[in-house]
Amino acid sequence: TTHGRRELQCVGTQKIPETNLDDGTEIRFVWGPVFKENECPDTESSYEYIKSLRPQIIVANMGLWWLHFQTKGRNQKGCVAETWMNYEHWLNNTLVLAEEAGASHLLFKTTNFICDDKYTNRYARANHFYRKSDEATIKECFDSIRDSASVTTSNEDILDYCHHGTINNIGSEHLNKRLFKFIDIARETTLLKLDVLNDYKIQSCEYTGLKDGRHYQLLNLARIRLLGNSISCNEP
Fold it and tell me: Is the dihedral of CA 58, 178, 125, 217 positive or negative?
């Protein structure tokens, strides 16, 4: 915080120019551990930059980036699958980051609701096979991830990712259940005001486009209001 101004630090979203509001609020959007094609994540530089900003509020989210339709239109490398497997580790690292940065509030945003019905073509076909846990599809997924994952990653964890790390609402709900479980435990161990920005609950098929099914620009104003309410409800 500079000269008593509140800073809002959003982690894991697209990098855009900084925004400074009339009331003195400073907003920075910073890439978190984003996985570009053929690259594995390096979170250290992002975390160090965030700490240098000394933000008062951090909003963190990465869920959609880790989901897959492996071999059927959305492939992930083993390192991405392993980050999904260790989601709780990522959550805890972000909590430690917020504490070290001197933040007062940490909000973990839910992974977006995914409206599978909006999918077409490759994604629609992939969703069909993954939703019914098609044996051949799961085997292809397993073989693909096994080839690029660490030798210490278990077959059971890879199969779990193939079944529950899909980019449909099965995958979204799975991550959100893990998030809420983590928050319930972590609240007992930190002095931060820790909460979930649950915009999943206001998202529906009505507000996302055909072929997309997972982005909700039409709800941006409502989501900003939800963010404001979530912060206000955690004020002393």
Answer: negative
Sheet order of strands, 57-60 included: 19-20, 26-30, 7-11, 57-60, 105-109, 193-197
> How large is the greatest C-alpha to C-alpha distance in the chain, in angstroms?
60
Q: CB-based burial of residue 68 (10 Å sphere; 0-12 exposed, 13-18 middle, 19+ buried)?
A: buried
Confidence band, pLDDT 50/70/90 cuts, at residue 31: low
Check whether 194 has a pLDDT greater than 60: yes
Q: What pairing do the DSSP bridges indicate for beta strands 57-60 and 19-20?
A: unpaired
Find, among 108, 76, 67, the residue nearest to 91 by Cα: 108
Instruction: Supply the pTM of this predicted model.
Output: 0.88
Residue 226: per-residue pLDDT: 95
Residues, the chain:
236
